[in-house]
Amino acid sequence: MSQPDPERDGEPLKLRERAYASFTERLLAREIRPGQFVTQRELVAMTGYPLGAIRELIPRLEAEGLIKTVPQRGMQVAHVDLNLIRNAFQFRLFLEKEATAAYTRTATDEEIAEQRQRHEAIIGRAEAGGDETLIEDAENVDRLMHEMIIDHLDNDIVSQAFRVTWLKIRLIRQYETRIQNHILIPVMQDHLKIIAAIESRDPEAAAAEMSAHINNARTRAMSY
Question: Could you tell me the superkingdom of the organism this chain comes from (predicted)?
Answer without folding.
Answer: Bacteria
